[in-house]
Amino acid sequence: MNKIANRKVICDVLMEHAAQDEDITVLCSDSRGSASLSAFADRFPEQFVEAGIAEQDLVGIAAGMAHSGKKPFVASPASFLSARSYEQIKVDVAYSNMNVKLIGISGGVSYGALGMSHHSLQDIAAIAALPNMRVYLPSDRHQTKVLTEALLKDKQSAYIRIGRNPVEDIYSEDHMPFEMDRATKIGTGKDVLLVACGEMVKPAVDAMELLERNGIHASVLDMYCLKPLDRTTLLEEAADAKLVITVEEHAPSGGLGSMVCQTLSADNPKKIIVLSLPDEPVVTGNSAEVFDHYALNAAGIAAAVKANMA
């Protein structure tokens, strides 16, 4: 069982590159511990900014640094970063097209029992609506590593949402297929296409294996890139599928399901089932308890497939 959280992976990648590039800067909102960035702050104090609990200032400072040629990575709880500083993201980063990488830590229901105030279940819809903003939800530590390395090489703004706790490996160091802004296909089944992102990819893969035992051949599309959405791969993989099911740790409106429905309804209409968290304050509990309650687990996904196969 993997014990390395995605946030730790991001810190390791940034530390490795910051040693050779003093323009790489990390900014936090009293969240260096939660973001696993304390080691970066200790080793590179001249490349670290602590803004305190002031998310709007945090984003504005990062935009100013980017305008001056720095390469800022902003880490703050996704619930606050995407909501409290939305205007600054919209104007200072997106509208101004600044090279700011926003890392929404403890995304989705990672904060569990703290409830709706700390959940970020609308962030994909909100951030993806902004021009010049890309949105990524890596599915495991290996994908997080290669994504972070890729983002270090470009000068576009981006929002990266990661969970709080370690997630089980889907890929490995020896097998990490990755192409920037292209979804990764897992499996070869043609009956059902499961499209998932972030922490929902692993349960989708597990559901694929459960379905195979029942004679239903599925494949999974790891849509880590929600914006830009990989329309080409989605259309190719959905072409022959009898059913498409999307799975996401997000509200039902404006997220992965909405994007997939919009794409396929225009170019390849077929039956699509959207599995998400409900349009209401979700129950309290840790991530696994919340996912189990709403059947966002392998058994629940497999059951949804069986119920909707015609």
Output the keywords.
7-stranded mixed β-sheet; 17% strand; 310 residues; 37% helix; globular
Number of helices: 12
Low-pLDDT windows of residues: none
Question: How much helicity do the residues have?
Answer: 25-40%
Shape: globular
Largest sheet: 7 strands, mixed
How large, in whole angstroms, is the Cα Rg? 19 Å
Percentage of residues in DSSP E strands: 15-25%
Biggest sheet strand order reads 2-1-3-4-6-5-10
How are helices and strands ordered from N to C? HEHEHEHHEHEHEEEHEEHEHEHH
Head-to-tail CA distance between termini: 37 Å
Mean pLDDT: 96
Number of strands: 12
* Chain oligomer state: single chain
- Backbone structural class: alpha/beta
Give an overview in words.
With 310 residues, this protein is an alpha/beta fold. 37% of the residues lie in helices and 17% in strands. It has twelve helices and twelve strands. The strands form two sheets. The protein has a seven-stranded mixed sheet with strand order 2-1-3-4-6-5-10, sandwiched between helices. Helix 10 links the parallel strand 11 and strand 12. Helix 1 runs parallel beside helix 7 (141-151). The longest helix is centred in the first third of the chain and has 13 residues, at 6-18. The chain is globular and about 60 Å long. The two termini are 37 Å apart. The model has no long low-confidence stretch (mean pLDDT 96).
Outline of this structure?
Helices cover 37% and strands 17% of the residues.
Chain-wise SSE layout:
Blueprint: H1 6-18, E1 24-28, H2 38-43, E2 48-50, H3 55-67, E3 71-77, H4 78-81, H5 86-95, E4 101-105, H6 123-128, E5 134-136, H7 141-151, E6 158-161, E7 184-186, E8 192-196, H8 201-213, E9 218-222, E10 225-227, H9 231-238, E11 243-247, H10 256-267, E12 272-275, H11 287-293, H12 298-308
Parallel strand pairs: 1-2, 1-3, 3-4, 4-6, 5-6, 8-9, 8-11, 11-12
Antiparallel strand pairs: 5-10, 7-9
Helix pairs in contact: 1-7, 3-5, 8-12, 9-10
